[in-house]
Automatic annotation (TrEMBL):
SUPFAM superfamilies: Ferritin-like. It comes from Streptomyces ardesiacus. Its cofactor is Fe(2+). Homodimer. Keywords: Fatty acid biosynthesis, Fatty acid metabolism, Iron, Lipid biosynthesis, Lipid metabolism, Metal-binding, Oxidoreductase. One of its GO terms (molecular function) is stearoyl-[ACP] desaturase activity. This is Acyl-ACP desaturase. PANTHER family: ACYL- ACYL-CARRIER-PROTEIN DESATURASE-RELATED, STEAROYL-[ACYL-CARRIER-PROTEIN] 9-DESATURASE 7, CHLOROPLASTIC. It holds the Pfam family FA_desaturase_2. It comes from the Bacteria. InterPro entries: Fatty_acid_desaturase-2, Ferritin-like_SF, RNR-like.
């Protein structure tokens, strides 16, 4: 069980996150996406495949939520965060789905079959403790942000104003999620630096993005998964900025890694 002081600090972080979200970051699928510009959407298969792929990853939300909530007994700060986070993530899948349908890039039948293929699979949380899941979430949200930033740039270059705006709105949410998890991780570091660094080293070494391998016909999607993540981009775009945000260096990670057993 997490200490009372830590739980109270989590709650304060949640309130800061929530206030900012309510005041500056709320958007809705119906009014805030330029659907009046659908006639400008180019018929580019790779953009549609990427939108469908990210929609599919977001559609594992029930599994993600269940995993988070099951680890948080008695911790209301993080439970309220998970509820709010789930609402925001739900919009990500819905916005991408609406884009695919309204632009005519996918039919209702195709989306239903895709949804059925997704829901036939089940995502399992990769870590078993709340603190390791916080580390994982901080890295995963930033990786997701980088992916959406890349996709937004591709959509912009293809002159697709609708998809570019969908990705901008989603990416802004992902960055806010990442910052929240980084702050929670900072609180963990303050409370138990050695243990938290060990968790960080362990998760960094075993990190994988969720659900890509669960999507149907995955070979087709390989190029989507790796867009923006060639040649060590995980290190430069995700790991080093995350360490920097936590006031850590690679040396801190190496020292902690030396104390982590090799097998998970
Ligand atoms: Fe998302
Ligand atoms: Fe997110």
């Amino acid at each position: 069980m997490t200490s009372i002081a830590l739980r109270e600090a989590f709650h304060r972080e949640f309130m800061t996150f929530f206030e900012r979200a309510e005041r500056t970051r709320r958007w809705n699928v119906f009014d805030d996406i330029p659907w009046d510009r659908l006639d400008e959407v180019p018929a580019r298969d790779e953009l549609a495949l990427a939108a469908e792929t990210f929609c599919g990853i977001e559609m594992f939300l029930p599994d993600y939520l269940q995993a988070h909530l099951s680890l948080l007994a008695g911790d209301y700060g993080q439970a309220w965060f998970s509820a709010n986070w789930g609402y925001e993530e739900a919009k990500h899948a819905l916005a991408l789905r609406e884009y695919l349908l309204r632009s005519g890039r996918r039919t209702e039948t195709q989306m239903r079959e895709f949804g059925d293929a997704v829901t036939a699979r089940h995502w399992e949380p990769p870590y078993r403790t709340p603190r390791q899941m916080v580390v994982y979430s901080a890295l995963q949200e930033l990786t997701t942000f980088v992916s959406y930033r890349e996709q937004r740039e591709l959509a912009r270059r293809a002159h697709d104003p609708v998809l570019a705006e969908v990705y901008r709105l989603i990416g802004r949410d992902e960055m806010a999620h990442c910052r929240f998890y980084q702050r929670i991780l900072g609180l963990h570091l303050d409370e138990d630096r050695t243990g938290t660094l060990k968790d960080l080293a362990h998760v960094v070494r075993t990190f994988r993005m969720p659900a890509h391998e669960l999507l149907p016909d995955r070979e087709d999607r390989e190029s989507v998964r790796t867009t923006g993540f060639g040649n060590g981009a995980f290190i430069t775009e995700v790991l080093l900025p995350s360490l920097g945000a936590l006031g850590l260096t690679r040396h801190d990670l190496y020292s902690a890694a030396a104390t982590v057993p090799a097998a998970r």
